C-alpha cells in the first residue's frame, strides 16, 4: 500500500495565514511592524531563490523585509560591520545571514556576532544552549517546521523511536535535541546517524519516525525503512532530474506509512517558521514575552 503524503505546502499556508493575523493584531495594538533583514553574500543560485522566497513571504504576512546583497569577495570584517549596523537598528527585529557563506568568511565569528534577540535562525550559541536546556528563545526554522508537521498531523512522538540521519548544526543536531526534550511533541527515543554509523540500514529500520537531512539525493531506499514508518525528507538536491530529496520517494512510499514530498514537504514549513520567529523577535524587542 502506498504511504499518505504529508502536504507541507498547504500546512505552511495555514501557518502563514495564522501568523499574518497575529502580525495584524500586534501592530493594531501599537507593536512595530516586524522586520527581517536577510543578508546574502555571493551569487549561489539556490540561496538567491531561498532569500527571495523569504522576502515575499514576509511581505505577504504584513512584515517588512530588507535584503542586503553583498559581493562574493566580501571580507569577514565587512560582514561583521553590516551585522553590527543591523544589531543597532531598532527597526530591525530579525537578522538572517544566509548560509553557506563564501570560503574566506569566518562563519562562526559572523553568526556569533548576531544579537541573540535578533537571531531568528537560532544559530547563536546562547540560543543553542537554551534549546539544549529546554528553555528555547527561538527554535531553528527547519526542525521547528518538522515539529509543527508532526504535531498538526497528530503523529505520535512520545516514546517513539526517532532516527535522525545527519548531524548538521542547522537540522540534524537541533532536531535530535528538540525531539528528546520533556515537552509537547517530543519525549522521543532519539538516535542520530551519520557518516561513521555502522550498518546504517539496520539502525534506520528501527525507526518509527525517520528524519533524513544529509544532502545526498535519493540516499534512503525502501530497504532502510520500517514498514509503516513516518519518513521526513529534509533534502533539497538540484540534480539533472530536477529537485530531489534525500529519500528515494518512489520506492520508499511503498513501504512508509506517511512521507513528505520534495518539493512541497519540509521546505515551505521552514519559511513559515522563519516568519513565526520574526514575529516572536518583534514581540521580545517590544518588551513582551
Ligand atoms: N541555508 C540553508 N538553510 C538555512 C537556514 O535555515 N538558515 C540560513 N540562514 N541559511 C540556510
Describe this entry's structure for a reader.
Helices cover 40% and strands 16% of the residues. It is an alpha/beta fold and 289 residues long. The strands form three sheets. The protein has a six-stranded parallel beta sheet with strand order 1-11-8-7-5-6. It has a three-stranded parallel beta sheet with strand order 3-2-4, with helices on both faces. The protein has ten helices and eleven strands. It folds into two domains: 32-121, Rossmann fold (3-Layer(aba) Sandwich); 141-266, Rossmann fold (3-Layer(aba) Sandwich), CATH 3.40.50. It has helices at 8-28, 45-60, 76-88, 107-113, 125-132, 141-152, 172-180, 200-204, 249-252, 266-285; strands at 4-5, 35-41, 64-70, 94-97, 161-165, 189-193, 209-212, 230-233, 237-239, 242-244, 258-259. Bound molecules: guanine.
Write the layout of secondary structure elements.
Elements: E1 4-5, H1 8-28, E2 35-41, H2 45-60, E3 64-70, H3 76-88, E4 94-97, H4 107-113, H5 125-132, H6 141-152, E5 161-165, H7 172-180, E6 189-193, H8 200-204, E7 209-212, E8 230-233, E9 237-239, E10 242-244, H9 249-252, E11 258-259, H10 266-285
Helix pairs in contact: 1-10, 2-10, 3-4, 6-7, 6-10
Amino acid at each position: 500500500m502506498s504511504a499518505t503524503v504529508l502536504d507541507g505546502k498547504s500546512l505552511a499556508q495555514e501557518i502563514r495565514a495564522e501568523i499574518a493575523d497575529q502580525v495584524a493584531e500586534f501592530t493594531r495594538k501599537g507593536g512595530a511592524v516586524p522586520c527581517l533583514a536577510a543578508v546574502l553574500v555571493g551569487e549561489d543560485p539556490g540561496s538567491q531563490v531561498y532569500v527571495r522566497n523569504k522576502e515575499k513571504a514576509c511581505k505577504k504576512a504584513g512584515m517588512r523585509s530588507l535584503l542586503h546583497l553583498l559581493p562574493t569577495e566580501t571580507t569577514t570584517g565587512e560582514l561583521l560591520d553590516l551585522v553590527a549596523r543591523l544589531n543597532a537598528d531598532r527597526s530591525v527585529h530579525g537578522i538572517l545571514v544566509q548560509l553557506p557563506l563564501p570560503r574566506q568568511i569566518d562563519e562562526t565569528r559572523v553568526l556569533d556576532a548576531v544579537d541573540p534577540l535578533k537571531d531568528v535562525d537560532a544559530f547563536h550559541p546562547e540560543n543553542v544552549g537554551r534549546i539544549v536546556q529546554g528553555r528555547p528563545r527561538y527554535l531553528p526554522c527547519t526542525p521547528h517546521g518538522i515539529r509543527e508537521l508532526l504535531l498538526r498531523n497528530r503523529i505520535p512522538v512520545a516514546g517513539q523511536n526517532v532516527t535522525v540521519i545527519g548531524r548538521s548544526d542547522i537540522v540534524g543536531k537541533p532536531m535530535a535535541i528538540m525531539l528528546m526534550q520533556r515537552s509537547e511533541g517530543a519525549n522521543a527515543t532519539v538516535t542520530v546517524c551519520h557518516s561513521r554509523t555502522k550498518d546504517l540500514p539496520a539502525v534506520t529500520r528501527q525507526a518509527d519516525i525517520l528524519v533524513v537531512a544529509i544532502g545526498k539525493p535519493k540516499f534512503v531506499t525502501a530497504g532502510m525503512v520500517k514498514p509503516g514508518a513516518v519518513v521526513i525528507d529534509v533534502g533539497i538536491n538540484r540534480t539533472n532530474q530536477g529537485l530531489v530529496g534525500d529519500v528515494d520517494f518512489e520506492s520508499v512510499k511503498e513501504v512508509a506509512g506517511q512521507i513528505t514530498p520534495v518539493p512541497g514537504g519540509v521546505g515551505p514549513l521552514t519559511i513559515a517558521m522563519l516568519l513565526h520567529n520574526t514575529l516572536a523577535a518583534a514581540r521580545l524587542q517590544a518588551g513582551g514575552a
